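Report of the visiting student (M.T.), summer placement. My assignment was to run the structure pipeline on a short list of targets and document each run. The first record concerns DUF952 domain-containing protein.
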Amino acid sequence: MRCPPYPEDMGSEDRVCPACGQHVATVVRRHKTLGAFVPVWRAGPCRNPQCAAYVASTADASYRASPRVGAMHEPLLHLTERSLWEAARASGSYEMSTRGRTLQEEGFIHCSLRHQVPQVAHRLYGEHAASGELVLLVIDPQRLTAPVRYESMRPGGEEFPHVYGPIPVSAVVDVEGWGNGESTQA
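After the run finished, the structure tokens were exported:
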């Protein structure tokens, strides 16, 4: 007999809004228990504007106050090469995880919050970060269809948002030039 939970089972059930029954994304946050980081899976916010739960969740101050949960309303950012973004616009979805790695290879798309972008740019692109060939995708997490999980590379490390699926072009609400101060609408 198999005793749950196995990692492949964790968070795999479909989550729905209790008010309207619409499917919602699964999000995870981690907390430390007995010296180990343990994931806690929960339903994300309802994205149906006609749903009473949608209105209640966006107006709930305690929901916005939590750094991990509240970050769901903060835009997610992804630094990429201009040519990769142009290819994604043509195909309808963005599927690069990080520099030189695809969503299929990595399992998720690396994103950042605004304060994390400079260190990511330096780590991934070094002196090429100021070349003008990079763009910063500004992603509205409410428009994503894939789950967003905040995870760190090591226990106790800084958590970064990861998108566990392709990013629809419609979820990118702005494209900012990186290193040259330009900004263009998506």
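The longest strand covers residues 26-33. The first helix runs from residue 52 to 59. I thank the supervising group for their guidance throughout the placement.
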